[in-house]
């Protein structure tokens, strides 16, 4: 049988190629044997199998199957174990990410208040209360990932969207509080991501900033409505700096690039609001510079 | 002014939150300072920066900017360097992958001959000659990736398609030669991928097998036309075993799953051809051993 | 006025930059003047203006406008002339291409007969009669293009689709007549395109061959229906050679690549038809080789 | 066999058509032979092959294949060489264009400052510094194209988008400096495109102007906010002239036409800003000369 099979498509001449049909299998069995023998110890680590769930050394870490098994089944048995493990890992990641997502939603809900009132520390207290929860969740996510070193980017897609949203909320809150951009390292600190194994991907951080930028035109319009005529100037200054900083980057033609291209519309919209306020000489009720005053005088002529 | 900005949207009360507006920046500047000081050496390694191109520790590896720089610009300057490096890496990967793709095409072109004649060792010589070229190319790819340990899955998408094609060709050649499935470890050996850093992703291997399976119905049809009436039985046996092995796996609802679902149509078509041959009693005019007959008896209830 | 305009956005300080507002215009006017002076002669050539209709030296070839004209209007007047000329050229190309298209349609209509009867020289007489018409039309097209050397690829898109169709018809007719592939040089000869100025683009030729290939499965099915059991073998041999030849090419991921990928389905379909004929031992009424005979004997057992 | 093949689908009668099946090949082989003999020298020139990479004379420039080769393979071998060369050329073009794109981005980044401050010669120094870099890059691009005379429009699509962006930046800078439109010849001079082989396509120039126009409403809004109340009048005058000049052109229904249609929205927006300023009697607090007043009188019927 094996014989017939081995010479699947060759005439007798081919058998000369391969006098002993069993030989070609020998090195293989040996190879696998050796692999399988080391595997149990690796299994104990747990990490190992996951780590290589879908990689080279991968099928090395499956338990030794009965020698009776044909190599094909033996291999697929190994794959089954590894795919199940990586599937299980995905499930656990997914579970944490769902919590991240709902925490981010709660944060956003309370953050939305800033569109109705002048933001005060009190307004930000509730969204800020969620930061601790998120830190805890990312800590759990990092633990899950710790089981498979070097696989960050393999599962990255499973949490990046939620993380971008989180970044946008944190950055908006930080700007409201300090008037400064929340830096990458500061996000990492807030979320406890500042370890080399599990950090905040730069592109996710940048995309998060773009999402935050999308919120600003609406914010400016609403602040002017509630009488803060100086808000447009501040937001414009901030957004202009942010936009200029982004322009330093050589963005490939990808999602980040697309998001960034959208930022200029936010910028334009804020400029328009600032223009409306200036042209009407609506006085900023704070450090109005000489020019503002001059402009107010000019208003006199109208 | 900076002060006014810092308290962008807060009444005085907010200042209490943050008595010394400059303090929150101190630890950051320190952190970056220290980072930036180590960076030149890291730059020299090259690896380091790439490695973290888009990760947490990332912005640590940019050269020290003049202390004058505001943190925002400083950060984006760091990002620029890292994104450019990872972009450059992508370009280099792309260059090698293009060569893999064209080598695979040459291999396929000569492999296609098996659809016109009865495959002999001679027919397989030319496609086999390309294996060495591929091994060399994967070696170069591994070298590029070696510059950024733990980033295999970050760039994986850039070569996986071509690799799946390569696997399908190798697996077909191997089956033609030995009548056995080319195992994952054997592909890795042929392509020199058997190191932990840069191996063959299991899903890519499995998808490659699905592609090979798609070739088999055509092969069977053509072999029968050139008079090998025993080929359908052999292919059917092989494909049945392969299909059964795949069924052991818990496939998530992804590309692999979709490809595998296609395999059953290959199986069905091969069964039909086998049926055509049997129903016409076309006897295998080649080394049909005793067990072929036994097998035919088993097939009796067809 | 000019003065106020010139300093559009500069404070006085800027005027120092540019003490004499008229100076910067001098060299410009001179430049244009000289250009415009040479242009009439060029106009006479006709070619010249077209040739550069939308290119560098372009606006040099417009007739001298009254010196009164401001440079902006002067320039756009030049553009108007050139865009109109290139538009006119496009119209003339379009007119010829429409005739090519309808001639190709006539050719196709009479060529379709080969799907109902066994092709004979008589059947091909009518489509062949159109070749002369096409040659004449391409000659007219070449004349139009001769007016703007080096602009072949600028207007190429206007006729390539129709040309690909023409190639597919000619190639099918040629194969029916000779059993060989119509070569690129042979198409050029038939259509009088063998001059360096206006030739047949290789990609158009190749795409045309792909279109021809799409006709073959239907042809094979119909020929078997009218009793030509040897047709599948011939078509299969031809299509296999053609497909293998295409595989030598490094096709970029473009339209040609897409069309070529489709060819393998034609090949598969023809193989299936050939298989049906063989498995039923339908005797080819021509040089049936020993193998075929053996196969017929085997049929005896059924 | 060849014979049987040649008369693929004809009865004997057809053979009369073509008494000597080998004859039709003779002239071809001769033709190619001669061509192939000259080719090596051409290969050395490099240019030649590229030049005709995908054109009529094309397959003439492949190295002489062994006479054994069948014409079909011989032809495709020629195509392979030519397609590879043209693909290589595309790669080299792409590399330069990527640099053009990133230089244009740097230029734009520094040019954006004019939206925050009153433009001064100092502000324009940085973007102007990039012009030299661009000139150098276009020079390299021209060198690449020089390898295939008469193929400008074949590869044109690979750089036109970036070039349109470059034109829009240069035109904006020029207007800010001189209050005049940057003419086509002036762009060519700045970028060193004033040679007949490699120039600036007029449509690219015009599209670039449309892009510049899109920047002007934003510019006007921002200038008014920084207190330059005379800016709207100047921009309106410029944009009105530009729009009127475009109206002289007979634009086909293409991309340029679409872009131009957008210009009227820029015009409308600038008119609105000018209206806002006038209705509030915001006096231009800068060098408003007598003709400004005259101009205001003219605007009286606004």
What topology does this entry show?
4 copies of one chain form a homotetramer.
Chain A: H1 2-6, H2 12-17, H3 25-45, H4 47-51, H5 71-111, H6 121-146, H7 152-155, H8 160-178, H9 184-191, H10 202-225, H11 231-247, H12 255-279, H13 290-301
Subcellular location (chains A, B, C, D): Cytoplasm; Nucleus
GO molecular function, one term (chains A, B, C, D): single-stranded DNA binding
Family (chains A, B, C, D): Belongs to the translin family.
Strands of chain A, total number: 0
What order do the SSEs of chain A take from the amino end to the carboxyl end, as H and E?
Answer: HHHHHHHHHHHHH
* Rounded radius of gyration of chain A (Å): 30 Å
What is the CATH first-level class name of the largest domain in chain A? Mainly Alpha
Poorly predicted ranges of chain A:
1-53, 56-66, 286-302
CATH second-level architecture of the largest domain in chain A: Up-down Bundle
Family (chains A, B, C, D): Belongs to the translin family.
GO cellular component, one term (chains A, B, C, D): cytoplasm
InterPro entries (chains A, B, C, D): Translin, Translin_C, Translin_fam, Translin_N, Translin_sf
Keywords (chains A, B, C, D): Cytoplasm, DNA-binding, Nucleus, RNA-binding
């Amino acid at each position: 049988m094996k014989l017939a099979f081995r010479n699947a498509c060759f005439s007798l001449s081919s058998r000369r190629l391969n006098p002993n049909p069993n030989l070609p299998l020998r090195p293989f069995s040996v190879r696998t044997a050796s692999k399988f023998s080391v595997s149990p110890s690796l299994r104990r680590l747990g990490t190992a199998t996951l780590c290589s769930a879908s990689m080279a050394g991968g099928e090395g870490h499956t338990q030794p199957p009965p020698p009776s098994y044909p190599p094909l089944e033996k291999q697929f048995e190994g794959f089954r174990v590894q795919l199940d493990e990586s599937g299980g890992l995905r499930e656990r990641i997914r579970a944490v990410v769902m919590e991240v997502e709902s925490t981010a939603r709660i944060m956003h809900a309370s953050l939305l208040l800033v569109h109705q009132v002048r933001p005060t520390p009190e307004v930000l207290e509730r969204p800020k209360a969620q930061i601790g929860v998120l830190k805890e969740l990312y800590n759990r996510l990092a633990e899950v990932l710790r089981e498979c070193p070097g696989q960050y980017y393999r599962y990255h897609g499973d949490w990046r969207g939620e993380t971008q949203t989180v970044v946008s909320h944190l950055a908006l809150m930080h700007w409201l509080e300090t008037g400064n951009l929340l830096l990458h390292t500061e996000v990492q600190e807030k979320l406890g991501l500042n370890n080399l194994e599990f950090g905040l991907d730069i592109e996710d951080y940048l995309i998060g900033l773009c999402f935050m930028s999308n919120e600003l035109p609406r914010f400016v319009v609403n602040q002017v409505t509630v009488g803060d005529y100086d808000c447009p100037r501040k937001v414009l200054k901030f957004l202009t700096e942010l936009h200029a900083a982004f322009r330093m980057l050589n963005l490939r033609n990808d999602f980040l690039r697309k998001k960034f291209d959208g930022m200029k519309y936010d910028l334009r919209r804020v400029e328009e609001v600032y223009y409306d306020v200036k042209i009407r000489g609506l006085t900023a009720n704070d450090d109005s510079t000489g020019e503002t005053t001059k402009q107010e005088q000019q208003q006199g002529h109208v």
